[in-house]
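Workshop exercise sheet. Pairs work together: one partner reads the sequence aloud, the other fills in the structure field after running the prediction. Swap roles for the next sheet.
Pair: D.N. / O.F.
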Amino acid sequence: RNDGMVTKRELVEFIIEKTDISGQNINNVNLMDKFSFATVSQDLVSTFVNGMSGQRYRGKKVNVEVANKR
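Structure field:
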């Protein structure tokens, strides 16, 4: 995998560690070849972005973008 994440659980554990958001609030985890997705509720977006900004995972910079509503 090019984004460095091995499993959904690994991504969720990384998010929990960096943001203190409960795993129950992290949903729709989707691992792609070069990036991954996770969903948090609107009231946790700023906590998520602030916690993940500037982080590195296995030497790679973590990039966080807020998706537009569909």
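Discussion prompt: The two ends are 27 Å apart (CA to CA). What would you look at next?
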